[in-house]
Write a structure and sequence with these properties.
Chromosome partition protein Smc, six-stranded antiparallel sheet, about 180 residues, alpha+beta, single chain, binds magnesium ion, Rossmann fold, binds adenosine-5'-triphosphate
């Protein structure tokens, strides 16, 4: 499994539709301060279901919609699609390519899609659980995260190992079953 493409429109500083193609190997995003490098990684975390506006460096979810600039009106919808190569069936779906889309409107309405089919946030979270790529997984290591991991409590650190070992899915199911 690897990231193939990221399509972004109306998200943060990206008013116009942009497409980022990734190839196997190392990809680096370079650019001057404030040019939108971190906004790209925010877009990846957002489409994977990030719910915390603060962790996306805003105060409310609406802050991720293009807010307007000199001579350019604000937009009312933001949309991000992440396309993954799934030739190796790492994600439990029988498709060689899997795309996830998230859309949010200024009104607060939001939509999630898997391969263009509307779904729930839970479906996206479940799809990526134990894949290493979920919204809280270890594939995206933000600034300060390494220090946070090193100084965290053993129970917190254990969660990272559990995700890596692929047991989080079963643990979550067990907890849900016990609640019922
Ligand atoms: P640095 O090198 O300093 O880390 P960067 O390339 O990571 O910079 P980002 O933090 O990705 O830059 O982008 C910041 C820019 O995005 C700022 O100019 C900010 O005004 C703009 N921005 C953030 N949210 C929005 C929004 N909702 N609408 C318009 N622009 C936005
Ligand atoms: Mg940055």
């Amino acid at each position: 499994m690897f990231l193939k493409r990221l399509d972004v429109a109306g998200f943060k500083s990206f008013a116009d539709k942009i497409q980022v193609d990734f190839v196997p190997g190392v990809t680096a995003v370079v650019g001057p301060n404030g040019s939108g490098k971190s906004n790209i990684s925010d877009a990846v975390r957002w489409v994977l279901g990030e719910q915390s506006a603060k962790s996306l460096r805003g105060s409310k979810m609406e802050d991720i919609i293009f807010a307007g600039s000199d001579g350019r009106k604000q937009l009312n919808v933001a949309e991000v699609t992440l396309t993954l190569d799934n030739e190796d069936q790492h994600l439990p779906l029988e498709y060689s390519e899997v795309s996830v889309t998230r859309r949010v409107y200024r009104s607060g309405d939001s939509e999630y899609l898997i391969n263009k089919q509307p779904c729930r946030l839970k479906d996206i979270v479940d799809l990526f659980m134990d894949s290493g790529l979920g919204r809280e997984a270890y594939s995206i290591i933000g600034q300060g995260r390494i220090e946070e991991i090193l100084s965290s409590k053993p129970e917190e650190r254990r969660k990272i190992f559990e995700e890596a070992a692929g047991v989080l899915k079963y643990k979550t199911r067990k907890q849900k079953a016990e609640q019922k």
